[in-house]
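Encode chain A's predicted structure.
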Amino acid sequence: MEAGAYGYMLKNAGKSELVTALNAIVSGKKYLTPELDALIKNGDLYKDRQGENSYGSLTKREIQIVKLVLEQYTTQEIAERLFLSTDTVETHRRNMMHKLDVRNTAGLVKYAMERGWG
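Encoded structure for chain A:
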């Protein structure tokens, strides 16, 4: 949003959320998907966990995947790029979210961006 985007929503958003977002943007407002908005409003509840400025307990493969997520690669593109199955990429993503104590991809992106991983 700081770079000039008017809205952000997850790719699994439904039609009604898309309509809501478009209406907000057309009327001059910005739109942020509710999941990400809640994460931002609640802040980081786990500031005491290790790895605040490093990749902590992430494996080399998980680090590769999180960097590609930050570059907006899809799961399929990440799988092709790293010669993995999409199921393996999703497993790595779930493991990262568990290790970093985030609930979804938006949380993973927020966590990584706050720490300058991107």
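The radius of gyration is 15 Å.
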